[in-house]
Write a structure and sequence with these properties.
The complex is a heterodimer of chains A (594) and B (134).
Chain A lengths: L4 E6 L2 H5 L2 H14 L6 E6 L11 E4 L3 E3 L7 H10 L12 H9 L24 H6 L4 H8 L3 H11 L11 H10 L6 E6 L8 H8 L1 H15 L3 E7 L3 H17 L14 E7 L8 H9 L22 E5 H13 L1 H5 L9 E8 L5 E6 L4 H8 L9 E6 L5 E4 L9 H6 L8 E6 L4 H15 L5 H18 L7 H15 L3 H5 L2 H9 L1 H8 L15 E3 L8 H5 L5 E2 L7 E2 L9 H5 L5 E3 L1
Parallel strand pairs in A: 1-2, 5-6, 5-8, 6-7, 9-13
Antiparallel strand pairs in A: 1-3, 3-4, 9-10, 11-12, 11-13, 14-17, 15-16
Chain B lengths: L5 H19 L5 E6 L2 H5 L2 H12 L8 E6 L11 E4 L6 E3 L4 H14 L7 E2 L6 H6 L1
Parallel strand pairs in B: 1-2
Antiparallel strand pairs in B: 1-3, 3-4, 4-5
Helix pairs in contact in B: 3-4
The chains are: A alpha/beta (594), B alpha+beta (134).
Amino acid sequence: MAIKTYVLVCGGTACESTKSRELYDALVRELREQGAENDAQIVKTGCFGFCEKGPVVKFLPDETFYVNVAAADAKELIAEHVIKGRPVKRLMYDSEQSKKRAKIDDIQFYQKQFRIVLRNCGVINPESIDEYIARDGYKALEKVLFEMTPEQVLKELEISGLRGRGGAGFPTWKKWGFCRDVKSDQKYMICNADEGDPGAYMDRSTIEGDPHSILEAMTIAGRTIGASCGYVYIRAEYPLAIRRLEVAIEQANAYGLLGEKILGSDFSFQIELRLGAGAFVCGEETALIHSIEGSRGMPTPRPPFPAVKGLWGKPTVINNVETLANIPVVILKGGGWFAKIGTETSKGTKVFALTGKINNSGLIEVPMGTTLREIIFDIGGGIRNNRKFKAAQTGGPSGGVIPEQFLDTPIDYENLAKLGSIMGSGGLIVMDEDDCMVDVNKFYLEFTVDESCGKCAPCRIGGKSMSLILDRITAGNGTDADMPKLLEIGKAMSKASLCGLGQTAPNPVVSTLRYFQDEYLAHIRDRKCPAGKCKDLVHYLITDACIGCGVCARKCPVNCITGQKRGKHVIDQTKCVKCGECFKACKFSAITRG
Amino acid sequence: MAKLTLDDLRKLRESKSNEMERRNVDGKDISVIIGMGTCGIAAGAKKTFDTFVEALAGKPELKTVVIRQTGCMGLCYAEPTVEVVMPGMPTVIYGNVGPEVARKIVQEHLLNRRLVGDHVFDKPAADIVKSRSK
């Protein structure tokens, strides 16, 4: 007899701690006792997310999702669901949010993710235009070319409420509208794929997984604003994404979905790639334009905005990869459909690259308005090694941190700004109690100092000065005057810098000063780093609790721990590199960090 | 390939759509789909790919298996990921598929029709494209 039902029991670490192992054993036992071993297979799986509701169990092929399942429920699940084929309603997952989302579409949702941008990623072969076409690819273009006027396209975008996903959140229909309204013999459409925030890789994955969606959206944009030429500005260190774009452009040209008279219409559009050398500032639109023109990638003051005077002095629209990937869906499903997803001011979904101290790091896409708690604990599977959540960093070097008390704030452009962070392009770095906020900031500031183009003084000098102050604080030489000084420089930078890079560079510092002032104070007044990250402020000492097992001495990479067997060991402070290996290795809590 | 007209494009979509649908539901084809984004490749997806090719060679009963590539599904913590689509079995995503697990998938999933424990992961979200056509 063939197996009819597959019972998946979550075996992630979080579920294991909520007794999924017992449940697994109980299910196996019940299956045997009820004589259904040939009807079903019990399988242990990787983490499903939803760890707060664990243990979770999923039945295939009917996709029934059970939460908070106890070992005592095993008998009923096997008897009812496996043998009689009747789902056990009382254990099924049911939430207000899933009901709300179920209204958007007729799919039964139990997942927190909703994929518009990533709809094809991990589904189609990115090097096959046929598979893209099969999944409604180029259907939106069809509609735009033959059934809609450019005004209708703009209207649809306006209804959708789609805002730029590059970080600032400017309404896309307005940007396109401005450019459309300018009269010019030539206009340009640019896709900004110069993704540079540390820890962010949404755009790379989107292009690698679904390159045609970007080409289709650019063509739609070209038709709407009246451009016949488009550029994808992508960094050279994304070789796979570049190759897939090249393949996609070639295929689209061969099919006549790019080039002269697309699909027999009177519209012609071509797309070329421009490779950037990886300067962070080239993600800023005026710098990006200069880089395409072959000049040095440095920003120029706005206005004039690119929509009026952009590439080679012609009206130009620049959209981020993620923004563009939304466009075909907005056109096909309608602005109204799109506007139902998300919050009052922020519509649709947002892709985040979830990294840091999180169990399930990866690329996620959630409706706007999802809370950080849902992202980190339901989708991300919680903090690694059961450590305590400290803060989440959004927006990379231009963003800020969100501490624990705001975990339940729905994420959208406005709420993040209120908390002193920004949506940014979508990097989301999770930090736990072992991360030092001052040290993290030092990293971001060093990054922006490195990447500052040096054209304007506030960014060039301000960034460096702030970075020096942070160096001083983490070395234990901070003074009480340092914190107000940081804020003062930060304020000047954000007011006077020429472009977004300098204007937002102080954000991480300002935001951590707001929420983690005591950590700065600990560094400055007590000369201590509470997280134990700042090496100059940390000392490891072995106390009398040492039993002389010698584990620390064996772990020490610089062999600076000595002592007799069964006698108290000593750390040679002059040689210690403060790696903390001994601290982690000691089973008797005989090593202190202070 | 000649340039498409509107009609050609629609016809092509129809036929390819049916083809994909059949592959997903009741066709005879079995697909092993390997995530080959940068993260997958960095985690060893190419080796996994090669292992599947080797493991399938010389097994006439698995002649209908197609090995395909796709982009990143977002489960970066579980790369390399492999999706197995075959008739009569639920579509499953396997994570952390190294060569050994790949061979296990061929033996257990494809031949014995049993899932390979400890490596099954959840698809991250419902498919909005498919839901429309239903």
